[in-house]
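Lab meeting, action items carried over

1. Structure of the four-component assembly. Owner: GW. Status: complete.
Input record:
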Amino acid sequence: MDMKMNAAELQAFLERDFPQVAGDFDFVEVAPPVVVMGLSASDKHLRPGGTVSGPSMFGLADVCAYFCILSALGPVALAVTTNCSIDFMRKPAPGRLLCRMELLKLGRALAVCEGRLFSEGAADKPVARASLTYSIPPR
Amino acid sequence: MDMKMNAAELQAFLERDFPQVAGDFDFVEVAPPVVVMGLSASDKHLRPGGTVSGPSMFGLADVCAYFCILSALGPVALAVTTNCSIDFMRKPAPGRLLCRMELLKLGRALAVCEGRLFSEGAADKPVARASLTYSIPPR
Amino acid sequence: MDMKMNAAELQAFLERDFPQVAGDFDFVEVAPPVVVMGLSASDKHLRPGGTVSGPSMFGLADVCAYFCILSALGPVALAVTTNCSIDFMRKPAPGRLLCRMELLKLGRALAVCEGRLFSEGAADKPVARASLTYSIPPR
Amino acid sequence: MDMKMNAAELQAFLERDFPQVAGDFDFVEVAPPVVVMGLSASDKHLRPGGTVSGPSMFGLADVCAYFCILSALGPVALAVTTNCSIDFMRKPAPGRLLCRMELLKLGRALAVCEGRLFSEGAADKPVARASLTYSIPPR
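Predicted assembly:
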């Protein structure tokens, strides 16, 4: 799958279009159809006990799927999430959380991604899995 | 379905166990198997353009399902989300977002909820629907 | 929501386009955005013990969503299921199974339905819930 | 992950407990946490045009997840599907369909699987992806 945006271009896009959350995320690997992103959890992402909250995990999966699609599609600002199915399987360890997302289908109107979230260094014990569908605007 | 916790009890539970987000949410109706909660969106919940973000909608559905279960089950702090499937159908209007969640099954080990999110006054045009499964710890 | 096809028209469509399964299903109510269909389970739908199998419940939800969309959209043969999320909550009683499906969104490219399956006479104890997305071909 | 049942043992279990469908499926690979099964589609699995129907794809994913769990858990007949999320991405080619399912979590009460369906020889163009949760009875 051809790369239409590299890590630096995705990073610039993230900072310009999502200024409120850009500081939370970083790109670990951009190799379409796969993109890996990290979440540097701060207080606002944590639940009592210090584990990353469900909405923060959802947010990481959602942003990672979005940039996974953009890495293969190019800068299309109007793609929107239409569906997400997420399974929470283990409690995350304190510390950094990664998401590895894979683009399974890039169609005319829909893109489908699937990925896993895991604590850094523990990819074999995923804390969650997620599949997401994005609607792609007509061009 | 019997009510095991009323709105005031759920509110106290929310403030004690989720202090970081308690101010974001309020109880509109507690009538098991149905609970309606509201999200008073502030800057952190919004995306450019002023619409409520996907993770904030997920968070509203998740917290509403949690308290929907507690309203029928009583104060069990350790129930955890195991699955969520959410469909985003329309862009929310600026302003307050409500979630109406219904408890469909309260089993020994699992509870299943289903609900809809809508802008206040527009229940007939839901912005999202969500179904969630919670794992209930052995008693 | 306007009705574009009534029960008799949907029935004719079912018999012409799905001859292999047409005899399994019947229309109980067609009132867009809601359609109720029944499954007259025969041996091929049953698992040991006499309960309706998971694939048969999935099939009932899928066909009911399809005709729910057609009742509001008109005869568009090429709509295809893109996603289904289904929760199995209770074991069905032996006998007839109904599905009540509601069309939540009929967009240009996507339609979203949500519904419940229950044994006849036991709508308050759903055996399953399902949400489905259909992709609608460009017209 | 230890293997508790091998292909021959799973095959015997399939024939004894699911006699109505046993002839439809076969085991291609049993290597926990991964199991690959095939569906030899006959008329009852096909839609007009000769493609495998949605319920048949759901059925293949469901049975493959079940035996994926049993390969790691041993012969536990009462595990039941509680949730399935499935995305249909491409039309299957005529002919044999495979499902590669991976067990992501084997907990005390819940097991989570994730897998892909593809036409034989085309694993890089999956026709569907599915995630399933099974409830495991107390032992």
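2. GW to write a short summary for the group page. Key points so far: The two ends of chain A are 20 Å apart (CA to CA). The interface with chain C takes residues 82-83, 85, 109-110, 133, 135 of chain A (CB under 8 Å).
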